[in-house]
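Full entry
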Amino acid sequence: MSVDCVLASAIAYNGNDVKRINHLIKVFSFAHHIGFMEKCAPNTQTVIDIAAILHDIGIHEAERKHNSSAGHWQEIEGPPVAKELLKGVSIDEADKERILFLIGRHHHYGGVEGADFQILVEADFLVNIFEDGTGRDGIENVKKNIFKTKSGIDLLEKLYL
């Protein structure tokens, strides 16, 4: 299955960077669960899964080239790395392009279009809230302004509110 191959490649690419490997696995797990609960079509679910696995794949290049892991640099550096990792993965070319688009925009929260994009953003927030120690006011703000799916909101409330 292509998702399993991408996960293995992403883990190998991150080497011994356990923090980033754990992050991508958690985002992937939440994204997969939200997509399942929202009854996404299989094709959309594959895009969600792969985009979630690879969403931060540009961090190492961003740090190497720009001495920063800031979201802006991740979005610039991520798609070329992801494109290399997706070579030989058996998925539709349009889906690959959508995955690269999502990786290159996953820190842009205005104008989120499509279930795949929304679910990726929500899954990343679910993980980042914990990893960053976001307080209740920040969580309420994210709930009000970012979360849209019923399943994502349910998870956010069960985990943090």
